[in-house]
Amino acid sequence: MVFKGWENLDTDILVMIFKKYLSLDELTSGVAHVCRGWRVACCDPILWNTLDLSHMRSNFFELSCKPYVYVDSHSDKALTRILKLSMSLSKRNTKTLIFHYDLFPNGDMLTYTTRRCPNLRRLVLPSWNRLTERSVCDAISYCKKLESLTMPSLVNPHFVFSAIRENCKKFRELKIMGPINLFCIQNLVCLLPKLEVLSLRCNSIHIDALAKIFEKMKRLEVLNISHSYIEFGEDTTTEIPWRTKIEKASQLKQFVGCVDPGTCVICQWTEKDEGFMNWNMYDDDGLWKEDEVSSLHL
Known about the structure:
two-stranded antiparallel sheet; eight-stranded parallel β-sheet; 12 strands; Leucine-rich repeat, LRR (right-handed beta-alpha superhelix); LRR_dom_sf
C-alpha cells in the first residue's frame, strides 16, 4: 500500500485517532490549522459531544468578602481561550458541559458557552462565587433541551428552579452538592414536582425536608442520600418519622443510602464538614465527581 500522507487519511480514521490520543488542550492548540482535512476532523460532533473541563482548576485564593475568591488573570485568559476555541470547533454540537467544582468562570463566560450549546442535555456547574442570579438565569434560558443539572447549594435557589421550570421542559434529574434546608426543598417540590432523579449525597438533610420530597414529588423514581446525615428537629421523635420515611422510600425504583454510616469514612467527612463539603480537601479521590446514580457519575 502507498501511504499518501496524514492529510489524505479518511476523516473517520482521523476522528478516531484524535478522540483516543488528543486531550482538549491539544485539540484547541492548533491541530485544526494543520490542513483542511484535519480541520474537518476536528469539527466532528463525536469529539464535542462532551466538553469536559473537569481537568481545569482556577488559580485562586479565598477572600473574606464577596465573591470570596480572587482568580488571577492568567486563569481567566486560559479558560476564555479554551471556551472560545471549543465553541468554534464544536459547531453547536455539545450535549454535555462539565465544569470543575473549583473552576470559577464569571457570568459572561457561562452565558457565552451555553448560548452556543443549544443542544445541551447535561450541565455540571462550578461553584457560584463569580456567578450572579441574572447570569445563571440567562445561561439556563439558552438550554431549552436541558435534562440534567449538577449544582452547588444556594441560600436562595428559587431563581434557578424557576429558570428551569420556564425554559427546560424535558428536565428530569438534579444533583445538589451542599446542605439542603427546608426552604430549598419547598422551592424544589413546588417548581420542579415532575423531577425523576434527585441526588443529595454528602449533604445535611432535615427530616422535614425529606418528608416533603416523598410527599410532593410523585414522579420521583431515584433518590440518592448516600453519605448524608439526617437532622431531626427538637420537637421530632426520630424513630417513628424515620421508619415512615423508609417505608415511603420503598416505593421508589431506586433509593440509595449508606449501609453503615458509623464506619463509612465519607459519612464521617460529611458530618465533620456539617454538610458543607470541602471538596478540594478530598479532590485526590475525585469525590465531587462521584455518584451512586450512574447517570450522574462523572
